[in-house]
Amino acid sequence: MSIELFNLSGKIALVTGSTHGLGMAMAKGLGKAGATIVVNGNSSQQKIDDAIKLYESEGIKAIGYKFNVTDEAQVIDAINKIQSEVGPIDILVNNAGIIKRTPLEEMEVADFKQVIDVDLVSPFIVSKHVVKGMIARKQGKIINICSMMSELGRNTVGAYAAAKGGLKMLTQNMATEWAKHNIQTNGIGPGYFATSQTAPIRVDGHPFNEFIINRTPAAKWGDPDDLAGAAIFLASRASDFVNGHVVYVDGGILATIGKPSNE
Ligand code: GCO
Ligand code: CA
């Protein structure tokens, strides 16, 4: 009975930006809990095809759709196709995101807007079009991938922090508007994980690498697989009365002010 609460068999999960990184790790978690994964990316069909092979090699049922989450017409078209070719979307994970690291006073307005567009506007666009089916079926799970930057600032990531802070409030507002339809909207806020996005700041000898290890009570970078549990929980019946929260999977970063590097 208790394990049944987490069973995702028969469910269809669309995970945006799931050809690599944290999106793929969370999608694999959902897939191993039984869900069929709708894989999305926008860089190339080849990248999607390679990802599908990877999912399938782990026994996960996965189907790929290439579309740009910031382009409403493409999103509408893709969602229509997914719903007729795969089935109704039960679980939506808004994961696709970008980061640009530039001091605010030097940042181009176009770059700032692009980060907001991908990281904040696209979860709105995709949710807007997926939620209609969820409302009709009176059931659904939406998971917005937030960040430490939903709560904290950091030098050079101002646009990203503005978007991720906004995404936390968008999560609360989706919960406010859609919980009555038995749709649970929540967020996952990853701490610092070993992915390609953090590769440039994770290299040995980079001051940021040492800083993160010192700043994280668990004293290490997260393994992307550590996100699967939170994703399964928020996608499953186990969270049917959980609305508008962000689960921070961060090795304790938000619990503490940090410590001097010699402690
Ligand atoms: C950075 C990092 C972060 C992480 C993550 C933290 O430059 O600070 O890239 O923004 O990607 O989102 O939670
Ligand atoms: Ca791993």
What's this, in brief?
InterPro entries: NAD(P)-bd_dom_sf, Sc_DH/Rdtase_CS, SDR_fam. This protein is an alpha/beta fold and 263 residues long. The protein is built from 8 helices and 7 strands.
Order of helices and strands: EHEHEHEHEHEHHHE
Could you give the distance between the termini?
Answer: 45 Å
Number of helical segments? 8
Task: Using the CA coordinates, give the radius of gyration.
Answer: 18 Å
The percent range for helix content is: 40-55%
Biggest β-sheet: count, sense, barrel?
7 strands, parallel
Which blocks of ≥5 consecutive residues have pLDDT under 50? none
Mean pLDDT: 97
For the secondary structure, the number of strands is 7
Beta-strand proportion = 5-15%
* Global morphology: globular
**Hetero compounds:** D-gluconic acid, calcium ion
Provide the structure class: alpha/beta
Q: In order across it, which strands form the biggest sheet? A: 3-2-1-4-5-6-7
What does this structure look like?
The protein is an alpha/beta fold and 263 residues long. Helices cover 42% and strands 14% of the residues. It contains eight helices and seven strands. It has a seven-stranded parallel beta sheet, sandwiched between helices. Helix 2 links the parallel strand 2 and strand 3. Helix 3 runs parallel beside helix 4 and helix 4 runs parallel beside helix 5 (158-178). The longest helix has 29 residues, at 109-137. The radius of gyration is 18 Å and the shape is globular. The relative contact order is 0.14. The mean pLDDT is 97. The chain binds D-gluconic acid and calcium ion (CA). The site of D-gluconic acid has 14 residues, from loops.
